[in-house]
Amino acid sequence: MNLQRWGLLLLLGWTRLAWGASDKVDAFLRAEMARNHIPGAAVAVVREGKVIKLAAYGTANLEWNAPATTRTAFQIASGTKMFTAVLLMDLVGQGKLRLDDRVCQYIADCPSAWKDITLRQLASHTSGLRPGPVDADNASVTAAIDTAKRAPLASAPGEKNAYGSDDFVLLTHVLEKVGGAPYEQLLRDRIFTPLGMTHSGFDHATLTEAHVVLTSDVVAERSATYQWRADHQQQYWFLYPRYTLAAGGLFSSVTDMSRFAAALMGDTLLNAELRSSMWTPPRLNDGKPSSFAVGWTVGQYRGRREVAHSGGPALSDTVYYPDDKLAVVVLTNQRRLSPTLAHRVAQLFLSPPPFLNAPGITDAAPERTEALKALLPALLAGKADSRHFTGAAKDSLADLNEWLPIQLGGLPRMSRLILLEDSADHLTRTYRAIHGKDQTLRWFVRFDEAGQIAEVEPRDE
């Protein structure tokens, strides 16, 4: 057989694999939409700078029965921080600032408590500034910074991660001061226009006239946002004050998001050195790496390095695997959702994790493992009985029974439960659950002396 024929057969084989994964994406997302009451969704899969899957499903607006399309602008909420991070790194690349600059270089009348806070710490939520919700009474970035100046630090800079809005308010001020333009103009000039992102922008929704009138700019082809309530959908608004836009509030289409993801696989927006710096987490004061880098979360999935960000909590879900040059973006208009869809799509395109067949450790208390193995299906179905729990786990059981089915109820049946770590008293344990052929999940469990569960937490791995 000649080389040309071998090449053709190889190409056909890879094409079938790509189409097979693509078909599975459609089936998976439609099933999740039905299971979790998601009116509309869209997905993009980008590999090595090329879009290999782009699709939309369901309804963008239930009142008008308007279909979701690949141009539909979904609210991406905190996914906006990825764009803010790129703007920050762009200014680093221009030599206009450094990540290790002190924020007090850019803030007038800077509090002495802020003297050691760096721009890197602001962007990685390790500044020590108070976490918490936004304050709609702040009319501007300047007013919000003045409010933040009067608040004590919640922790020492670099001590821990604390996800909040004040970090990105200060970054907004720095970006506008150094960049010489308002935040939204910087986005348009440095990212949206160069990439042809024509369905991305903010609605500037505001409560006015004694908080009884809601005004908003027109966003072309915008999806409404919904929240499932027991047996019906409700339309849902979260108002992003103008001073918080660097932290959240952007609307974007899956087509635009695919262009953004593709650009980050090459040098279009940032060169390799800047991208590496953006995705490198700082060390906390105790020497451990932060779970946030510059505007992105960092971690591992299926044994691979992952950078990501979600928002809303799952109106947007973006994951990127730099070593594979694979990105997945899933957008939805359902607020009552957990950000797991991008992972589940990504696993259709990634090879099995290298630890899939690892044997685990010797189990000195197998009765605890068997009890947990019997209980987990009930937890994933939202039907766990309180008699198996104690303490904080029992207090939060209603939330567990509500959210674990949303988060994990679509997994295949568990086939194995493997003990990975065990404390000397066999009360604190880490397990790997294998679902179906190659989907894995870690469970962190703490038992009391009687064998009841005092703490339980699942994590993707």
UniProtKB/TrEMBL annotation:
Instruction: Supply the Gene3D superfamilies for this chain.
Output: DD-peptidase/beta-lactamase superfamily
Q: Which InterPro entries match?
A: Beta-lactam-related (IPR001466), Beta-lactam/transpept-like (IPR012338), Diverse_Enzym_Activities (IPR050789)
Question: Which Pfam family, just one, is annotated for this protein?
Answer: Beta-lactamase
Protein origin, superkingdom: Bacteria
Q: Which UniProt keywords apply?
A: Signal
Which interval of the chain is the signal sequence?
A: 1-20
Is Kinase set as a keyword in this record?
no
Where the record annotates domain Beta-lactamase-related, the positions are 25-337
Q: What is this protein identified as?
A: Beta-lactamase family protein
**What is the native source organism of this protein?**
Corallococcus exercitus
